[in-house]
Amino acid sequence: MTEKLTVARKENSALSQSSKTKDLVLTALLTALVFVATKFINFQLPFSIHGGLIHLGNTMLFAVAIVFGAKKGAISGAFGMGLFDLVSGWVIWAPFTFIIRGVMGWLIGRIANDKGRNGTSFKWNIIGILVSSIWMIVGYYIAEVIIYGNWFTPLTAIPGDITQIILGIILGMPLVAALKKTKVV
């Protein structure tokens, strides 16, 4: 009897370890997708003084947070976009991005998946995106005030932030719907 119990515990431990490994690999993959969408699919707005970078990282962040939840949304947003800042000449922004995008991913995932919604309610997904987007705009405004010591200059980045959000919704919501229909999730 004791031998069977020991074997069962070892099997459960192996399954648990396998599950943790799969979760870690999935989280790393989602983080990489956010990074790639931010790094390689972007352009600078010509009228913004310091910011105004438009990228598809939001599209991936929205999809990751809605489909996979708050924890993976927070991690992929913080590390994916924070890494972008580190390797793209925006190093001074990395600590701000890490916090802003981490909280953003968590907010979206939490609101979209709360109370058993599991990211299936279009209305709550949009609410999650809008709440987190307000956080993002305010967060980057404050970050830019800190970095540049100016209250006016950061206002020029807000149209770019709003453009990113709208683009993220337009491209991200169909991606979420497609992912929800697959057996990958």
From TrEMBL:
It comes from the Bacteria. The chain crosses the membrane at residues 24-41, 53-70, 90-112, 124-142, 162-179. Keywords: Membrane, Transmembrane, Transmembrane helix. The keyword Transmembrane applies. GO terms for cellular component: membrane. InterPro entries: ECF_substrate-spec-like. This is Uncharacterized membrane protein. It comes from Natronincola ferrireducens.
